[in-house]
Specification:
- By secondary structure, the protein is α+β, with helices and mostly antiparallel strands.
- The protein has two domains: 82 residues, Orthogonal Bundle (434 Repressor (Amino-terminal Domain)), CATH 1.10.260.40; 104 residues, Jelly Rolls (Sandwich), CATH 2.60.120.10.
- It is 33% helix and 29% strand.
- It has seven helices and ten strands.
- The strands form two sheets. Strands 1-2-3-10-5-8 form a six-stranded antiparallel β-sheet. A four-stranded antiparallel β-sheet has the order 4-9-6-7, with no helix packed on it.
- It is globular and about 50 Å long.
């Protein structure tokens, strides 16, 4: 049984590394900023050199699995402390507006507030999306099997996946494979608002 557990643990680690591949640099940087950690602070907590972390965030190096593991452990430390009160204790965590990281599209017309839980980032991510008319968000392909869900709250959006385009208005939801380049646009003349949820490979394919 010990060997089997070891193999399962190794498989889980490899799956996590595959999930992060291609998006690793952005993911590490997003988590580090979500915790308001400097490069030096993350280096101290993880035992990974500051220069290496900087290269990872810029996608200039392919880190070893051991390095990914040390970084993930360091970035989860505050969550572990929250949960350390015991399984029977109530758990409520609040994130203020100031603590919520914001991503901005290249054209500056779309803003994604990262409202998803840091603990689930490897398999589930969700965002509060606000957009000006004409705003466009271009995204690279996520790992194979990933699905994105865009639920429109206000205005009108369209999603372009490999030339296939669908539109949705308030109260409607678009679900699409995001393991290929895809674009979300705010169409019409009014600002748009939507909730975006990304379900990663581990939840979709296995």
């Amino acid at each position: 049984m010990g060997v089997e557990r070891g193999r399962e643990r190794a498989k889980d680690m490899m799956t996590g590394a595959q999930v992060l591949s291609g998006q690793l640099g952005k993911t590490i940087q997003r988590l580090r900023k979500a915790y308001n950690l400097s490069l030096s602070e993350l280096a101290e907590q993880s035992g990974v050199a500051k220069s290496i972390i900087s290269q990872i965030e810029r996608n200039e190096t392919n880190p070893t699995l051991a390095t990914i593991w040390r970084l993930s452990q360091a970035l989860d430390v505050s969550i572990e402390r929250v949960l350390a009160t015991g399984d029977e204790e109530p758990f409520i965590e609040k994130s203020s507006r100031a603590d919520t990281p914001i991503l901005v599209s290249d054209d500056g017309r779309m803003r994604l507030a990262i409202i998803g839980w840091i603990k689930t980032v490897e398999w589930l991510q969700w965002y509060d999306l606000s957009a000006e008319p004409g705003g466009e968000l271009d995204s690279d392909a996520h790992q194979r099997g990933s699905v994105e869900c865009l639920s429109v709250l206000e205005g009108e959006f369209e999603v372009d996946v490999a030339g296939e385009i669908q539109r949705a208005r308030a109260g409607e939801t678009l679900r699409y494979r995001c393991d290929r380049p895809h674009t979300v646009r705010c169409t019409g003349t009014a600002p748009g608002r939507a909730t975006m949820v990304v379900i990663m490979k581990a939840a979709v394919m296995e």
